[in-house]
Amino acid sequence: LPVVGVMLERHQVETLGTRLLAEAHAVGEALPWASGPTLDVACARLATDLGVRVTVIGPDGKVLGESTRSSESLEDHADRPEFREALGDGEGRSVRWSDTVRDRLLYAAWRQTRANEVRVVRVALPLTAVTANAAQVRQFVILGILLASLLGLGVAFVLSRAMLRRLQRLIAFSERLAAGEPTPYLGPERADELGLLEAQLGAMAARVASTIAELRIEHERLEAILRGMNEGVVVTQLDGTVVLLNARARELLALPREQDGRGRPLVELARDPALAELARVLAADDVAAPRDVTLEGGNGRTIQVNGAVLRGLDGEPFGVVLVLHDVTELRRLEVVRRDFVANVSHELRTPLTAIKGYAETLLGPAGDDRETARRFLAVIDRHSERLGRLIDDLLTLSNLELGRTSLRLAPVLVGPAIDDVLQILAARSAQSHVECSTAIAPGTPPVLADGDRLRQVLINLVDNAIKYTPAGGHVAVRAASANGRPGRAPQVEILVEDTGIGIPAQDLPRLTERFFRVDKARSRELGGTGLGLAIVKHIVQAHGGSLAIDSTLGTGTRVRVRLPAAS
Ligand code: ADP
After folding, report:
1. Are 46 and 27 in contact (CB under 8 A)?
2. Residue 367: which pLDDT band, with cuts at 50, 70 and 90?
3. Is 473 in the pocket of ligand 1 (CB under 6 A)?
């Protein structure tokens, strides 16, 4: 600001000086070439007209004429800078304090020559006016500048506030984005550079969100597939580290519930080293085709594993996938079937061998003796009967297992059915000296059953009771309504109890297996096929009932059958 002030003043003094110099020329031309009071008067007149001070100085510095007072009273002016300058160069200027007019004056001096005469005409103006003017202008300028600065500051403040707010919004937005949190909508606030950034960041967030959503759906789909699979799936890296395994795989490998298994070497997870070995072989051998191994899983399971190498789009192997099938049940059934075939062959061969043996003997000389022949024929008859029973039982069982026997369900009264059975077996019980009795509780409802099948069940059970009870023993058949638990359909309970030899506790669970007998020789002796209880179990289950056997060795056996009551 002071600089502006000074420059302004200097500029004004400059122009004023030039004007004053021109005035000095004019004044010089107008003034007579005289001195003393004559010139003083002329000077004073011109000075009032022009509003300046006029002085005429001789070449020696002596004042010849003066507008403000008498020239005689003035001292020598030879030392005044403007005078010396004008005398030397033709014109001169200076700003000085004048003792004569007691003011700061601007002087302009001009050297005037006529023939060989020389004088210096000097015109002066008080600078007070100029200074005052400059001060006022300076005030205006300062005020203007101050106002402009204030305005500028205000605008800058407002603008920077808005900018700061937008920047803060951008920062908060990108922080949420980086943290993976859901972001609000972000659009450009204004069409400037920051707006461009806002728009791009907003678009980027939208793209990221949609990509994440897509990935999540993909991931959930994969999880659902893996969860729903009945097979165990294990994926490992080439080094054998498990990267993925589903719940079924965890179950098959019997991993503890809390153990995730991912990130661990396969060797540590599987009890059977064959699994890790399969993965290792697959990973090492580049051209390995899918391979199978059967291994021991957790909880005594048998697991079949198909393994294959996983390859990326570039064909480079990056891992191994192992699919685990639980083949425990399959293997068990295989064993059962094999045993069954062996058992059937064995059971069939025994009577056949006997029949063949006796027939051959009969064909020989022994056949001539009538008495012997009759005895042998009786044996053949017994064995063929047994063979027939065996085949009947096998057919019954196989039909039951295949579900070929359709049950003709109808309400059947238990009492008459039991009486029928005891009637059929009366001869047998009498022969064995075993007493049979029945007790039907009053109000026992009829059962919903196939009458013939129910009789078959009862025959098998009562026949067993008679067979395995020594002479003098007792067989009791009882029936009663069994409305066990509330909410369950009403049932009828039939008990077949004997006072026989009993069954060892460890054999109880196996009684209903085909061809299972506690004492093979004795069973055969008594004409048993070993299929009776298996048939009973099947029929009872087909009716929606249940079978339970409990026994005390040497004391007796109790078989309990429950069948649904006919409503
Ligand atoms: P079987 O034709 O040999 O009698 P079952 O299937 O009827 O075959 O019975 C299987 C085995 O269960 C019999 O061999 C016998 O050892 C045992 N068993 C069945 N019922 C009784 C019973 N009431 N008392 C003692 N043992 C029995």
Report:
1. yes
2. confident
3. no
